[in-house]
Amino acid sequence: MATRRRALESAAALIPPDPTLDDLREAAAHCQACPLWQSGTQTVFGEGERGAAALFVGEQPGDQEDRVGKPFVGPAGQLLDRALQEAEIDRTKVYVTNAVKHFKWIAKGSRRIHQSPNKGEVTACHPWLEAEIALIKPPVIVCLGAVAARALLGETFRVTRQRGQFVPSPHAPWVMATIHPSAILRIPEEEARDAAFLHLVVDLKQVADKIASPSP
After folding, report:
1. What domains appear along the chain, each with residue ranges and CATH number?
2. Is-contact 103 65, C-beta < 8 A?
3. Is the N end or the C end of the chain the one with fewer CB atoms within 10 Å?
4. Residue 3: CA atoms inside 13 Å, Cβ hemisphere, count?
């Protein structure tokens, strides 16, 4: 039993040899490496083309993403679309995914309320993200929020201190962390919310510059 439990603590054994993105998506659809498969409607894998100009990593799918099966289609995704447009980044030319591929939530009446994944859940799902990055080989990676940043840049990384800065990473020539659009949506004051959105756009304009000239 102990051996079986260890096997389910990481998706590494589920990665197909020499996979395509479609191979990864099909394999991930059956992933039970952590308990979140029991509460999520479905695996929400990344979306985009191999050779994408940039790869954006969020935390996990939300309620709408879980129902539809695609990343960044809910309110946070719509805000990201707005920010990408203002930064002059073509959403169809980037790859979007999450550090965790299942929706973690608790019920509150008829609503499903987001719960942040824990370290074990992020670790269990990490082989999928590593496989996506290895296939796409993006020149630029953008971590949206603290969970994604810690997954790729280490537990000591703090978005509050280092957002908008390109930092060294083995994953891509240019790697940056910035605020997750969902965090902007949770800001109650309109003026502060607008300021946070503009700050996100400023960060993404740096990404646009690197997409245009990706050489370090």
Report:
1. 2-212 (3.40.470.10)
2. yes
3. N
4. 0
